[in-house]
Amino acid sequence: MMTSNNRVITKKDLRKLFWRSLPMEFSWHYERQMHMGFCSMISAGLRKIYKDDPKGLAEALKRHMEFFNITAHVSPFVGGITLAMEEMNANDPDFDTSSINSVKAALMGPLSGIGDSLILGTLRVLAVGIGASLSAQGSILGPILFLAVFNIPTFALRYVCAYKGYELGANYLEKIQKSGLMGKFMLAAGILGIMVIGGMTNELVSIHTALSIGNGDGATKIQNILDGIMPGMLSLGATGLFYYLMKKGTNVMWMIIGTAIFGIFCAQFGILK
Fold first, then answer.
1. Burial environment of residue 257 by CB neighbours within 10 A (0 to 12, 13 to 18, 19 or more)
2. pTM exceeds 0.70, yes or no
3. Quick one: average pLDDT of 88-96?
4. Exposed e or buried b for every residue in 81-111, given b needs 16+ CB within 10 A?
5. Is 29 helix (H, G, I), strand (E, B) or coil?
6. Burial of 68 (0-12, 13-18, 19+ CB in 10 A)
7. How far apart are alpha carbons 180 and 182 in whole angstroms?
């Protein structure tokens, strides 16, 4: 078993892992997706671990060219765990190398669930909402705040993940599953993501009707009636309709084409504005 006395990975090596995680998706492709990016991310650490064992290094590099895909921002966590396991392998001739890719595969799903919910489904939407709202008002703070709100937390997350992944090593998955924290955390992240997206629907989806009841100055605008019942009702309804169609597996391109045709028709006959 590996101990702290025979560890060769240092904080400097983990910083390299952090920086190498940034272009993780540059080589993404459909067959094995992020495998080359992952292998590149940990390659400096592997060379240090197997510096006196060229055959072991070659086998390790080949081992990490297997299929891999995860939310890129949490990939350093898996990278840190992988380097800890590779150190175990280098110091234990009886170590089962197949367990390394098994742990990687086991972590892909749970961490992607958390990463997609928190980062892509919540933080990115929040950043876009803030940036787009300010940009629509002509403020230069729009793009600046978008970049800051999204990138500062994600860069910090990558950095912490690199250290914590290596520190906790291969025992992390077993611990978090036994505690039940993974399921609870994913549920909380999903609820938070739904709340954020739902709250921003009225801001980012804008639909107003031009129809009215009656003629002249005494006409009652239907939009005012709808706003009196619930502001943003049409926007919420449109969002719900698209959600329903996506759940039914409707082709996105048909949804886009249908929306364009419907919009042109409604604008032509004064139904929407």
1. exposed
2. no
3. 79
4. bbbbbbbbbbbeeebeeeebbebbeebbebb
5. strand
6. buried
7. 6
